[in-house]
Amino acid sequence: MNADDIDVMAGEYVLGTLDDAERRRVRARLDAGDEAFVAAVARWQERLVPLTEAVEPAPVPAALWARIETSIGSEAGRAARSVPVPAPLPWWQRLGFWRGFSALATAASIVLAVMLATRPDVRVVPRYVVVLATPDTSTPGLLVEAVDERSIKLIPLATFTVPEDRVLELWTHPEGQPVVSLGLVTPGRMVTITLDDLPPLAPGQPFAVSLEPPGGSPTGQPTGPVRFKGQTIRAL
Question: Which of 52, 43, 156, 41 lies closest to 104, judged by CA?
């Protein structure tokens, strides 16, 4: 493992995005006194602490507290099971869907932006970044970066599978505009997308990737479940 690989894995370890097996391997190397890993983790911890001070605390959705209380078998949890749950709105109409990201997901956006800015092979710092993460676990899957407001680059961050009878479609929701498709997404492939017909990108603009029928949504609006979601933030 070269120095770049160690630095990336150390950053992911500090951020908490490694899976259990990878985290155990890093923990074992730290416990064994691997100087390269110890130094890399320390560097990322020094970077992360001041960055998290810029992250505003996000309120925990009431439904999540109910699930937690239910899972531990508390009296409050048993009471929560008896509360009727209203039919959900479509995801792009739910403000809570976008506010539901935890501080970890926001920190992931910031840290990944810093990683891009500090890698030696990156010459231009993106103006905006979006970490598209899974709604349930906030696991990063795709990165959107924009050097300006007129185009974006979609970069895969992880390997994932798509059912044979479905495709992935990328969406965004500019302020004051309807949800609009930015085209189909091929897993593992980086692509540049122009935004000539859309308003300029703005901080907090929602992006999402949904599962759709072959060829994309037949309605021009998202119809399938959301695989990844995120919002634009200004890169550091």
Answer: 52
